[in-house]
Amino acid sequence: MNSLSPKISGELVAKLAKHVLILQNGIFSLAKTVLNGLKSKTISLEGFSQHELHPQVSDSAAVDWIFVVDTLNFSFWSPDDSSCKWEVSHNGRKYTGYFALCAAINRAIQEGVQITDPNYYCNVSVEQLTHILRSDTSTPAPMIKERVSNLHEVGKILVNKYKGSFVNCLEQADNSAQKLLELVITDFPCYRDEADYQGHKVAFYKRAQILIGDIWASFRGKGLGFFTDIDSITMFADYRIPQSLIHFGALKYSDELMAILKSGVELPSGSPEEVEIRACCIHAVSMVCEEVHRLLQEEGIQNLSINSILIDHFLWDYRRQHAEQLETIPFHKTRCIYY
Q: Which residues are the signal sequence here (predicted)?
């Protein structure tokens, strides 16, 4: 049985959800905030490549860097009983979460480790990756064995099927984001982010979609990053963006779910509550995107464009910039390789 697409999954689960509600007034309000961000250029395609840890040159090395990072791009949160976060310093700055991963990969490259070469990482040991991701604090990177397993899996496939570079997989997609998504989830099982919900097989494909979105953003939609159907990619359903959507009044949790999250109890991957949170985020962002399109049309603005990827970037950045303020909204804790 084939899974429903992330977009259809979001629509379906949002209709059936018992624990998560999308609030229309919040959608309208957030759409206006996004429109203002577009007008002021705080929301733009330039943001990704301007970050100091992301590739600064649009070339094949950038594609292979993004592929490694997104193969490892999951589950950075620290347990409640840890006194500090996993933290990595690079060029005099300290980073946590996803950016700690980027910093660790860049540090390894500076130290001469061939971490973006599948011929190296298809055989990387637990000890080697532990050293590559070493922390400045007493809290190590979580799920090291799972990260090693991911690298072995995708590395062997790249070497055997794609001549040792993700660029060759990318080129087979013929500038189609959907074709690339299909290639990635078919050929690289660790990217197959799916669940069963009330008899329906639903899909999120967070890392596969963020891989495509990152390549698009890194190349500013040109060259290897040109996709004719990039707007078909949904937001990337993780554990941070729900905090922003609740903050903006676009999403609401049931009292029961909020109590579970505040207690710090982990939600199992594929549990109804976890599926509802992720799916409703996808649908909420799609609704915001549609409303922004409507507002752009209403105002006769033709030189600005929006999609779910850019809204995702805005919501994710907002959560980091207002971390203390949003800390009162609990995030759901699910240990898995998908996000």
A: none
Q: What is the pLDDT of residue 134?
A: 98
Among candidate residues 231, 238, 255, 312, the one labeled active-site is 238
pLDDT tens across 91-116, in order?
999 999 999 999 999 999 999 999 99
Is residue 136 part of the annotated active site? The answer reads: no
pLDDT value at 10 more than 80: yes
